[in-house]
């Protein structure tokens, strides 16, 4: 057995994805967005819950993450064979309630097309008490982060924690963000949030329409 703490640098506080998302080119596609109804939520910024770093050991089984949000369920098929450390870590966080009542704090609508979630503090600066290395990085090609991909946010190489982003339109970025899953249900929810835009009218910031993760089920 090997604990994740042995293969990662343990930190007490990580800055996640707060500085750069590095676009390569603009490759958004215009598609019809389905109607999505979001309910009111009592999710709000709160302190980070410490989770014990999990054991990382084979065999690695693909998992299904169901994000129950106030706007509907988003289902992610997680590829544990390609990103085992990431999937094990995220499953431990989810099962420990780390993501419960957290608001997706960042929407980007120009050059890159992503919704970012996973920070209980809602600041883009929060994360768990551990970090881990990059895995399953794509090639440096056009649309290397296609619509539906779910990848880790970071503040540099090997600084993964809890924050992740869902790509809602084909996006080209530097191949620096671990791809760990794909949305199989609910991508229309993310597209609807994107259609509403950013709260302050810019193209990068808090979504105008609040979307919160109420809970996450892993199976």
From TrEMBL:
Mind listing the UniProt keywords for this protein, alphabetically?
Answer: Isomerase, Rotamase
Q: What is this protein called?
A: Peptidyl-prolyl cis-trans isomerase
Annotated EC:
5.2.1.8
Q: Which domain of life is it from?
A: Bacteria
What chemistry does it catalyse, as a reaction equation? [protein]-peptidylproline (omega=180) = [protein]-peptidylproline (omega=0)
PPIase cyclophilin-type domain ranges (all copies): 72-218
Give the protein's biological function.
Answer: PPIases accelerate the folding of proteins. It catalyzes the cis-trans isomerization of proline imidic peptide bonds in oligopeptides.
Q: Name one Pfam family in it.
A: Pro_isomerase
The family line of this record is: Belongs to the cyclophilin-type PPIase family.
Source organism per entry reads Candidatus Nanopelagicus limnae
